[in-house]
């Protein structure tokens, strides 16, 4: 499988051929063009990820080419090469949307590392666009982001139970997306045309929670001047989502049990039952079996709620989904704050993947929002992370980490070769371009 498709545009055939060979050896599929006209023709008929283009060509300027191409094909990244440094051209190139602007010859060692960064950005944007197509419907299952085995298993269970009227119990840590799952189950059910009502049981006292769920009759207590419909009646024909069900007072649990057994309840201050047809989806971050042992939760209610249970994975159990989730939140908050932040540095993503995320997706979302607010460039960097995350990561790095070992080994070989990269690559048994990429990835300077 190729790593990406590259177009090299340069009227100097010898230089173009050399660059093509170097890029091809890295595993990329390469096409060549000797003019802007030829390059435009290739871009019209073929899918290209990154263009490496000379600034001065017989039929025009590469700087202008960047602007024209980015308007037509915004997903393409363009790296400009120039034989003569020109600050004005460089500034204009970046304004026009160039990925970078570098000198030929002196900066040749930067081409491959830059190319990898550009490809990474292109692929990330493609994944985001794919997600945007998936979430056309706000509360569909496609709104649940992730491709990990853990989240896919949970989604599969939710899809299977959604078309039924079965009561569902969602369990998992705070911030794992239990309400998102409840909404998706409702939208995929035959009740989707009716209301979805949600209530957090931990947000109310016993008395207020009873009034919120079941409603009351006028005169039931001081201040009850008129009848009030509870959420369970409002959701008639639809779905009632009770979040943090483990926080519900045990006296109220018996009233909820009656609804599940008979489809009826009695309002506060009323003497007769009210019939309802409502589906209950409950959620908890507690171990309800332990709550039963401690006498805090009714066993009979547990078994009524636990007809179909789905355990939602924590973010640390699905770390491979972190870059995708982070990219999604980045796009949301960049648009919200009107900032041109389009990517994340490799170190930033690595640090996100190393974090424990006790607050799960909710915590990740907050961290990305903060980073976007602090960002003063097009890329999120590790310095925009909260200080406590930076400190925990720096103190928790392991000397046995494979990346640390490789970095240390490369530094030792460079020291032995007195900074001679060709010699170092030979000693390491890798290609020179691969060494340059690793130096860039590990941020090792030539003098180390």
Low-confidence stretches: none
How many structural domains in the coordinates?
4
Q: Averaged pLDDT, please?
A: 88
- Widest beta sheet: strand line-up: 2-1-3-6-7
Number of helices: 19
Radius of gyration: 29 Å
Largest sheet: 5 strands, parallel
- Could you say what the CATH architecture of the largest domain is? 3-Layer(aba) Sandwich
* CATH T-level fold name of the largest domain: Rossmann fold
Please report the first level of CATH classification, the CATH class of the largest domain.
Alpha Beta
Structural class: alpha/beta
Q: Give the CATH H-level superfamily of the largest domain.
A: P-loop containing nucleotide triphosphate hydrolases
Fraction of residues in β-strands = 5-15%
Q: CA-to-CA gap between the ends?
A: 35 Å
Helix content: 40-55%
What is the count of β-strands?
18
Shape: elongated
Descriptive notes:
- The structure is a single chain.
- By secondary structure, the chain is α/β, with parallel strands linked by helices.
- The protein has four domains: 5-132, Rossmann fold (3-Layer(aba) Sandwich), CATH 3.40.50.2300; 141-313, P-loop containing nucleotide triphosphate hydrolases (Rossmann fold); 318-395, Helicase, Ruva Protein, domain 3 (Orthogonal Bundle); 402-441, Arc Repressor Mutant, subunit A, CATH 1.10.10.
- It is built from 19 helices and 18 strands.
- A five-stranded parallel β-sheet has the order 2-1-3-6-7, sandwiched between helices. It has a five-stranded parallel β-sheet with strand order 9-12-15-8-16.
- Helix 10 (250-262) crosses helix 12 and helix 18 packs across helix 19.
- The radius of gyration is 29 Å and the shape is elongated.
- The relative contact order is 0.08.
